[in-house]
Write a structure and sequence with these properties.
Length: 422
């Protein structure tokens, strides 16, 4: 195996164009994407400016009073009556939404103006505002009745937008959807409390972030994304060079020297894996040195990074073995060409190398999680965020399963005869 490894390393070092493609190009793209998209991924909202007109057709206090009067006339027990009256004050939906819009962070993005309906309609048509949010008549009363008494169908907020499908519209729609989901959850608990099924006093507020550290930065994200993408090219490169060896009779001379065919294939797998591991290590260290992406002094952190890299490198080696088998059997470099020209790009897209997949359809995310780069990216990001080894078990298992499948297929496909034909 050692002679094969040394041979492949020498061939790679002599090919400067391949070195540029495997090391310099991903490093340059890391810097470009990490710098250009840092504001977007790290929460820079300075470029978001939403002009929102709010139309109040609802009388909030009158709605609360009307609801409380209905409660008194409903014949509920006195304790439940007090609970429902207090819940109506606490869960006034219009006030809660207005308070949310006045939040300091949101107010930097969303600038609220109170208008009459006719003025708001004219403003949105003229493009002076991005959206009009209307609290319809009896909104408070109808909503409280539906939430706390399970009476009626409630009410609906009305959102009129100037440009359906724009980023500002999407932000407003997502914001209102999140608000209504939280309000529905709170109302269910409040109603249960009033009915004596839960504790009477329950306070819900804020959000819980399920991560141990801050989200990864754009530079960290694209350092990982480009590394796991470009490491796949190693498999195609080694396979294409195996085809050249076949064309130049190098492969035949190796086989005629008494080397078993499986040893040649195993040598290609090992060579590809080692080269892939070296590439990943160089890229991550360069990123840490130049871009300050990762902490250089944390020994335990780098043990984890190298461990994930080793698992991914073995997978790339097995894929390289599969492509080599196809190239030798078909005596064509079509397989490696399709892999590097089409499949790597497809894997990079589905695996999240170009951008996070949060807003993509579920089937794309599911497919991407089974690509070697996608599973490795999940593992790297979790490790960078501070999660333990237990959180890495599944993505590492996914990579390992792909490795096993590729290795088995490569040995099944590889020709067993010692062909000396060109």
């Amino acid at each position: 195996m050692r002679p094969f490894l040394i041979k492949d390393f020498k061939i790679m070092l002599r090919d400067r164009s391949e070195l540029v493609a495997l090391l310099l190009m991903p490093f340059i793209i890391m810097g470009i994407l990490g710098t250009a998209l840092s504001g977007v991924m790290e929460g820079d909202t300075s470029s978001i400016d939403i002009q929102l007109a709010v139309v109040e057709e609802d009388a909030q206090q009158e709605g609360i009073a009307a609801f409380q009067e209905q409660v008194r006339n409903s014949g509920v027990p006195p304790e439940a009556e007090e609970e429902l009256a207090a819940a109506a004050e606490h869960m006034n939906p219009a006030r809660l939404l207005n308070n949310m819009l006045e939040d300091p962070e949101l107010s930097e993005m969303i600038h609220v103006q109170t208008m009459e309906q006719s003025d708001a309609q004219a403003a949105v048509r003229a493009g002076d505002v991005d959206a009009v949010l209307t609290f319809p008549e009896h909104f408070t009363e109808d909503t409280l009745n539906a939430m706390l008494m399970n009476n009626g169908n409630g009410s609906e907020l009305e959102l009129l937008v100037s440009d359906e499908g724009s980023i500002n519209t999407t932000i407003m729609e997502d914001l209102l959807a999140g608000f209504t989901d939280n309000l529905n959850a709170e109302s269910a608990i409040a109603a249960a409390g009033a009915g004596g099924e839960e504790a009477a006093s329950i306070e819900i507020g804020g959000t819980e972030t399920l991560s141990q550290n801050e989200p990864v930065s754009a530079m960290q994200y694209y350092s990982i994304g480009m590394a796991v993408m470009f490491v796949l090219y190693v498999a195609g490169t080694i396979a294409s060079k195996a085809f050249v060896e076949k064309q130049q009779q190098v492969y035949n001379r190796i086989i005629l020297s008494g080397t078993k065919t499986w040893k040649y294939l195993a040598g290609k797998i090992i060579s590809t894996a080692v080269i892939a591991f070296v590439q990943l290590t160089i890229l991550f260290i360069l990123s840490a040195l130049v871009f300050r992406t990762f902490e250089l002094t944390s020994f335990s952190f780098w043990i984890g990074m190298l461990g994930i890299s080793a698992v991914l490198a073995v997978c790339v080696g097995c894929i390289g073995g599969l492509l080599t088998s196809l190239s030798i059997r078909t005596e064509s470099d079509t397989a490696s060409g399709v892999f590097t020209g089409v499949i790597v790009t497809l894997f990079a897209f589905a695996g999240g190398s170009f951008f996070p997949l949060d807003g993509m359809p579920a089937f794309i995310s599911a497919f991407g999680s089974w690509t070697p780069n996608g599973a490795a990216m999940n593992a790297y990001i979790r490790w960078v965020q501070g999660f333990g080894w237990s959180e890495l078990a599944w993505p590492i298992m996914q990579i390992s399963l792909v490795s096993i499948a590729a290795a088995i297929i490569s040995f099944l496909v590889f020709p067993r005869r010692r062909s000396v034909s060109s």
